[in-house]
Amino acid sequence: MRWLPKPRHNIWWLISGIIGLGQFVAISVGAQLLLPHANPKYPALALFSLAIGLIIGGAGWLGARWLPPITILGLVLGLVIMLSNFAEIDGWGDIVGLLSYTFLLLAGFALGLVVELGVWAYHRMKASRL
Prior knowledge:
Blueprint: H1 11-34, H2 42-62, H3 67-87, H4 93-129
Helix pairs in contact: 1-2, 1-3, 2-3, 3-4
């Protein structure tokens, strides 16, 4: 993962902001597609997006190399599926969209944690044999 910034580099906070802003825009567009005349709670959406961005960027800043890209993949897949479900307004599209987004985001985070722990265990075993 040479293309990722080094741990404790300030670019991770920029990445956090980009993730948060992109997620906020995607969810806001999805809310407008779902109910064009509704008034979504934009401050809550912004806070949620910022928290997710800070979790992903903070993990990278602390030195996680596999967790951020895998979680971002789950996040993007979840947003795409959520927006495609929002386009099918049949009564269940909004609920299915939000649940699929949440599931894929958490699945990406969990898979990233498992891979990160596996890499850590591999390096630990390799170091103990020397």
